[in-house]
Amino acid sequence: MTPVALTAAATGTSQINMLVATTRQPSGDPATLFNGERSPKPSLTEVAVSIPPDNKRQPGTVQWPRRLPPNPATDFAVTRVNHIETTKEARGWFRQHVVGGHALVFIHGFNNTYEDSVFRLAQIVHDSGMQATPMLFTWPSRARVTAYEYDKESTNYSRTALEQALRALADDPDVKEITILAHSMGTWLAMESLRQMGIRDGHVNPKIRNVILASPDIDIQVFAKQFAEMGKPTPKFTIFVSQDDRALAASSFLTGRISRLGSIDPTVEPFRSRLEAAGITAIDLTKVKGGGLNHGKFAESPEIVQLIGQRIINGQTLTDSNVSLGEGLTAVVGGTVTTIGTVAATAVAAPVTVVEQAQTKPRKKLPPAGDTLPGDLKAQELTQ
Q1: Which terminus of the chain, N or C, has less C-beta within 10 A?
Q2: Full DSSP string of 138-201
Q3: How far is CA 30 from CA 33, 37, 80, in A?
Q4: Residues 139 and 155 sit within 8 Å (Cβ to Cβ)
Q5: Is the pTM of this model over 0.70?
Q6: What are the start-end ranges of the H helices in the chain?
């Protein structure tokens, strides 16, 4: 995270300017800025990231430097860092970088460092071509696979800070509309903060128009309650799911073998009709080729990240003839199952049970996935 100067050799680079809010603890080291521990006082920082020329990188990827300092001609590199002390100062920054009054708030997932999340958001903004001012909310993750429970509690620790950040953004007269893009465990944080806002005010702030949940690591029963309790009207929701997501399979195992929202098949009942009733669009990425655990397809696929940046955050429909992608994707929009794209891809069979092989005790048979999502996508009163 130590800034480097752009040289004459770094021609053709692009620069992404973002505002970063965090509940991480300051590290005291300019190379990292913030660590994975929790801070009672949220911090704001302005960060600029240089991205190598398009002929030096593959869309959907982050070019980490092989050595330090990074070379902006070939690597992602931080070129500016400024700490922001007041909301007034933050609003001044937004006024200088406003893009059509549209703000994108990105919330990263499990096992991310501060720099991981900064570079990922820069990649998403650049590759998507979105017309929005980016803001990152990064919560305290220890960035270790073995720290799942610590990370999960850190999202709970951060939910009021995220709610306050969203309120401050919505109160800014230069902000006309807000899109939230959350990934993995960050979707839990996003839903909890929106639920808190809804409980306080009766509904989510109307400037929050779109909520995109990518590979949501949320118990589907809990998601139904969160959605209902944020009040009406709700923002437009889009979820990206994939049945070959091995990270969500591991999460399901760790959390009592309850299906995660990000691994459902939205074309089957009861999900299809209940998503329709709630007005939620679901896009199935199972046929999209992923890497590693198949958990970051939304950002790693050039076609998908462009779909997010050029259509979804603008609230555009996904069912018209203007949508064309490299893969044949299944989308459930308004209860109608449609195919997006013209080339059907072969689904990859994923060994989703690999994390369960270490368990030797016999397990009870799981109930059908649909049985774990009762009809509670609307608020229900306690009975006497």
Answers
A1: C
A2: E------GGGHHHHHHHHHHHHHHHHHHHHHHHH-TT--EEEEEEETHHHHHHHHHHHHHHHHH
A3: 5, 16, 11
A4: yes
A5: yes
A6: 87-97, 114-128, 148-171, 185-201, 220-229, 246-254, 271-278, 297-300, 302-310
Q: Is 340 helix (H, G, I), strand (E, B) or coil?
A: strand
Q: Any idea which of 81-95, 271-285, 339-353 has the lowest mean pLDDT?
A: 339-353
pLDDT band, residue 328 (cuts 50/70/90): low
8 A C-beta contact, residue 151 and residue 142: yes
Strand partners, 80: 48
168-196: per-residue pLDDT in tens?
999 999 999 999 999 999 999 999 999 99
Among 171, 175, 172, 208, which residue's Cα sits nearest to residue 193?
A: 208
Residue 115, C-beta contacts closer than 8 angstroms, at least 6 positions apart: 1, 32, 33
Please name the residue that has the structure tokens 């029963």: 221
Could you report how far apart the first and last alpha carbons of the chain are, in Å?
57
What distances in angstroms separate CA 1 from CA 20, 82, 113, 126, one per listed residue? 13, 11, 11, 19
Region of 70 (left: φ > 0; alpha: ψ -120 to 50; beta: rest) is beta
pLDDT the model gives residue 69: 93
Give the tokens for residue 160: 């009021």
**Residue 348 near residue 245 (C-beta atoms within 8 A):** no
In angstroms, the CA 270 to CA 372 distance is 10
Angstrom distance (rounded) from CA 220 to CA 384: 27
Extract the tokens encoding 179.
């899109």
Number of other CB atoms surrounding residue 344 within 10 Å:
11
> Which structure tokens are listed for 257?
């073998």
pLDDT by residue (tens digit) across 15-60?
A: 999 999 999 999 999 999 999 999 999 999 999 999 999 888 988 8
